[in-house]
Amino acid sequence: MCGIVGYVGDKEALPILMDKLRMLTYRGYDSAGIAVSKNGHFYVRKCKGKVRDLEQIVDEDVGSGTIGIGHTRWATHGPPSTRNAHPHLDCTGHIAVVQNGIVENFWELKQELIEKGHTFQSDTDTEVIAHLVEEYYDDNLTTAVALAMQRMKGSMAVLVMHRDEEDRLVAAKMDSPPLIIGLGRGENHVASDIPALLHYTNKIYVLEDGEIATITRDSVIISNYKEPTKPDRRLYERKVIVVDWSPEVAQKGGYPHYMLKEIHEQPQTVLDTLRGRLPERPDAPIELPDLNVTPEEVAAVERLTFVACGTAYHACLVAKYAFEQALRIPVTVDIGSEYRYRQPIIGPNEWLVAVSQSGETADTIASMREGKERGARLLAITNVVGSSVARLADGVLYTRAGPEVAVASTKAFVGQLVGIFLLLLYMAQYRKVSRKTAKSLQALRAGLWKLPEQIERILNDDGHVKAIAEAIAAHPSAFFIGRNLDEPLAREGALKLKEISYIHAEGYPAGELKHGTLALLDEGVPVVALATQGAVYDKMVSNVQEVLARSAWAIGVVPEGDKRLTELLGEANVLTIPRNHDWLHTVTAAVHVQLIAYYAAAALGRDIDQPRNLAKSVTVE
Ligand code: F6R
């Protein structure tokens, strides 16, 4: 949802800004722009299109300034165009602004500023920030930005530069959009996300809601924008985070797309997420100290609500099946954008578990705030250390997937599933479970360690899934069906296929097809039938029969050694996964559905890492 970058130091700003923008392209890619300041002059270049289109128009004369800001956009107010691309300037051309987020009261502010004589060049909400800062500017940029922030409502991360104060950038944050300051030697950086900073520094400061930062090459002074004259150095020193991601993990590493690279990183994601947490000795206790909960609190839990969006929501649906079956705790799963508007009822011993790759999804964050206000204990399963979700939560379980760059989430999903099973095993230690469940959980525990090798096997032999995906690519629509834990995976398979191949797809509970959707099945329509859950296998076979009876093309995903569906469909129409605990089949089957989406999209020549209309990290509600 828009990426913003900034640099101040002794090097040429332009190449550094462009490099950081390239790393943030996944946050939005309908227009891009930069402003570099030199000798009291701004060099502004912007255009409709991607960062690579911007590269074509940044010429030499922008070259040598050592301070600048940049932006890659995902349009909210005003269609993608050069006019609406950031940075935006004030009337005098002295102030340049980039923003990620939304100024909700921009229309009222714009009318007020027009009455005062300001003229606007764009349809964006961001331009009001430039004019507001102009209105308040009196030789001190930090004060002017602080006063402007006090007038605005909404959710935004803002970065501002003034031609007459060429030694500083001013950054401010209201509500959720992230803004990270990268601390260098003789230079400092700003970016919306950590991967953009990894080439330059691993020491970061994550700006908090309500903060304003004055950033020069040698200093970063943080204060609250309601009291900008009271810098809080203590706060700044206390919260510097050292990131352990290497710059290489945010590169394509020889793969044609980040998505394929990230699919191939999944064995490592599983290993990293388990290591140091799940002892291989079956009787050794599982410890998750970052969750900040006591055994007594675990024993007392009466209900869990999982909340998330998109792919992370599908991981939560898997959690519902597993937690309810194993721990007999009632579980509610909510979509982030719905939870806060349905006046949720929170019981006395209820935990709200937010699941988010980025940790910056506005709807998930809003749900956490709603839950907190209503008295829930907040836990987070997230991939980004220091993210808003992590900071808001009372306890965290980090998935260790490393930076995920492709817009379509893959390794983060697998990390979330593993995180969910870890949380379940951890909680089971302090709750009464039946002997049968205890045995099943031992198998789950052992099975988790088998996953990296099993995923590797699927990845090393992906010719068959590729051929099936390429055949699916010839169809205008496809269906994914499943029961029990395969049901959320069916939804995930459909989402992946839709978002990167643009083929219409639906993920459906297999038993529900006959209540309406079956009407859509016709000669040759692809139906991916996920049949990996033993308890409902017979029912799945019946549902596949229903599909075949309508002459549709059924493709089975089954555990190795499967007989009935394989006989029914023929080996050419069957994808296998290595046998494991049934619940862990969701992890290996996830790899197949990801590969189906990837190879179908590749066959259609789609822009796989940056599908149309989307952006990673959805920081608007
Ligand atoms: C789909 C996808 C999205 C995200 C969703 C939540 O492939 O990536 O559906 O899962 O936007 O994002 P996070 O997990 O960052 O909260």
Descriptive notes:
This protein is of the alpha/beta class. The chain folds into three domains: 3-246, Aminohydrolase, N-terminal nucleophile (Ntn) domain (Glutamine Phosphoribosylpyrophosphate, subunit 1, domain 1, 4-Layer Sandwich), CATH 3.60.20.10; 258-458, Rossmann fold (3-Layer(aba) Sandwich), CATH 3.40.50.10490; 463-603, Glucose-6-phosphate isomerase like protein, domain 1 (Rossmann fold, 3-Layer(aba) Sandwich). 36% of the residues lie in helices and 22% in strands. It has an eight-stranded antiparallel sheet with strand order 3-2-4-1-10-9-11-14, covered by helices on one side. Strand 7 and strand 8 (169-174) form a beta hairpin. The chain binds fructose -6-phosphate.
Number of helices: 20
Widest sheet: strand ordering = 3-2-4-1-10-9-11-14
pLDDT averaged residue by residue: 94
The CATH class label of the largest domain is: Alpha Beta
> What ligands are attached or bound here?
fructose -6-phosphate
Low-confidence stretches: none
Number of beta-strand segments: 24
State the end-to-end distance: 11 Å
- Any idea of the CATH topology of the largest domain? Glutamine Phosphoribosylpyrophosphate, subunit 1, domain 1
CATH superfamily of the largest domain: Aminohydrolase, N-terminal nucleophile (Ntn) domain
* Derived structural class: alpha/beta
Helix % is: 25-40%
| Rough outline | globular
